[in-house]
What does this fold into?
Amino acid sequence: MTDQTHTVYSPIVEQFRAEYPFGLDKFQLDAAEAIAQGRGVLVGAPTGAGKTVVGEFAVYTAFHNQGACFYTTPIKALSNQKFHDLVARYGEENVGLLTGDVTVNGDAPIVVMTTEVLRNMIYADSDRLRSLTHVVMDEVHFLADPSRGPVWEEAILNLDTRVTLVSLSATVSNVEEFGGWLSTIRGETDIILTDKRPVPLNQFMMVSKQIMPLFDSTDEHIGSINRAVVAAAAKQEETGKRRGPKRSDVVTRMHAANMLPAIYFIFSRAGCDGAVKQLLVDKVDFTSPAEREEILRTVDEGVGGLTPEDLEVLGFRHFRRALSRGFTSHHAGMLPAFRHIVEDLFSRGLLKVCFATETLALGINMPARSVVLEKLIKFNGEAHVDLTPGQYTQLTGRAGRRGIDTVGNAVVLWSQGIDPYAVAGLASTRTYPLNSTFRPGYNMAVNMLGTQGWEESHRLLDRSFAQYQANGSVVEQAEAVERRRRELEHQAKELAALIRRERPTQPEKAQEDLDLAVEYAGLRRELAQEERRAKQHAGSQRQQETVTLFQGLRPGDVIALPTGRDPLTAVVVRADSSPRHPRPTVVTEEAWVERLTPDMFSNAPVHIGHMKLHKGVGRNPKRQARSVAANLRRMHFDQKPTKLKPKAKGGSAQATSLRMQVQDHPVHAWDSRENISRSAIQYIKAERRLEFEQGTVTTTGESLAAQFNRIVALLEELDYVETSIDESGTKHADITIEGERLARIHHESDLLVAQCLRRGIWDDLDPAELAAVASVVVFENRRETGEEMKVPSEPLVEAIDHTIRIYTELSSDEQRHNIPITRMPELGFATALHQWTAGAPLDYCLRAAEASGASLTPGDFVRWCRRVIDLLDQIRNTAYSDRVKTTSRKAVKAINRSVVALEA
It folds into this structure.
């Protein structure tokens, strides 16, 4: 194409260019011209290249042609940021914001929203879609995200083809494939690519205390690796060095080299917070008095809605002191309000170093002069894996501020195991593949059938990007299967070697012994899972037994309390008639006066007899405690147990049977059974990973429509859908009333939630109990503490038990229909959220979560609260019972306070 200076663009493009504050690049103008001509565009460009300008032209075109434009983003932080940018340009009255939990001016001609909101509007056939002319999908490569990616594909598939779609993506290697799919389903779509960064990126390695260029030339595409870097790294290896440079040394050296501000990526929350502490200890300070004053003013304004008690829990003084010195951390475990303060200060140039996890690379506008990578390995949720070229590109793309810096810097720190040649390979690779994660689900099925009908639903699935990619991905999948097969062979060799050392004289039985070891490890694993399940069930059961006992107690009844080898005897002096929360008052044989609650005991007390009480004991038990205790000690109770352990042991017939099988197994007698069992478990995991990859190949070969049919079959069994075939042989599907409710539940456990609402098991809960039981289908425990959940009320115990029973039924149905199993409910957040909804302070709720097996940061706590609020809002709109609707509304109001309200 000719140079942009000789290219004639449409009048609206020239008008937009004239109004823009800086000169536009050719790829931006070419994309704008395609939009002006009514064509869709897919723009692939490096981070920081200015692709959002293309999205802003789509907004400009829609606005000046009296149309409407939706600007979608993957995360709320980006939506908020874009909203403020567009308000500054078009005015408050013309720009709206919809992020699920925030609604601002939703009828405006320009609306910024998360992609989920757009998808939900399409399924609801919102009136707003009538005037819609343009949709911008920012960061559309999120389509490859395993958990949220399908939303992008759903929206693209179901969006009216008359709407001009503008897709903005990071540079991906198969952009032509993705663009080809867009053209197929949406009509003519221009693919516009650029690999030019507006600010060149220099690559460095820091070895010991030296910051050294990674390449001989500033352009890694034509330069070779710097031999001095290789030599310095080799010298460090020879001297036995294991660790890289100290963090405070890194930032002070970069400060001296004029390479700040920097984003310093550390792939763990604890690592980021530890780095801040290290700089505080080393008395690092980057701010002038004027900057410090401005920082502190911003910080104090940003936390204006929090109490001193909350700030103490949040570690505010430590946070504020670090910011005042020009450095901080940024990760998902922080309170959202704290993250917003960090983003604001960094974007204004007041912070010089930000220690961050990779979540900061998700499009938030926080460019820096430099980016530091401490490691090239990150935890992906299952294992520590090497950074991919795409991840490296995404992270280092933050370096170089357009209009401020002439170059950006990417600095990789040397430590043992980091190979300069591998770093050079990452730095030289600019692209990564975009693969669909789209799969049918329950909510999607009823919505597609309700809006499209049977045949059109199948046609849409057959036109999905996932189906489009299926034939072209066979080689990659075959390679993945082969890699898993090699992994299984390696585990088999390690296990065989351990068995040979245990049984060296029986080589002819090697395979038989290996099979035995795997069988034994499988039994032990199954036993551990069953014991864990039984233990959880036992705790719930014992609490219910205690409630039942307390409800039946009368003054004079004597009970044995579970205190160990010699149970403590107590007599009831005042009963409690409360049916749900009985709290009897007792006098113990040691003359203590206590008011008992069911949650005080992990094992149930035992009723052992009755004694006569003096008159007036119930009115003032403390005054007569000594005489009552003396009488109690003189009495003998035949039914008193000799032992009553404080904590009941969980057990089940299944666990007993498995335990006997383990003990009777031949491998149990082997001397090195523990080492062999650990290795065999790794073998089992490798075997399952291979089966998963092989299953993926099978699934890819099968059409998505076939998977969809199996989902519809289950929904028909459960009366959410009714199908029929007319005289011509055409199949039809009708959505039942229950199906219409399911269509409004947008959640990964959508069918489980729908079943719970339908059966009314949440109907009689108060707001705190409803919030708590909703949390069990929302919460995912990031780090278990090994403690047991303590459920605060009997109705909540019953609701959770019923929810798990319904889950068990559903997962059995899913297995029978060969449908992916719904995620199992998790109880670790229930008690904490119950207490928060009931008005407890933050510190108490965090400790309650810890006691229930979930270790949460304040940021985690707020995030899960917001997720539960989102589900409660959906429950309010879909529940059968008016009482549940009212309770949901009250629960949302109760949760949305203090630190949670500040996030919104």
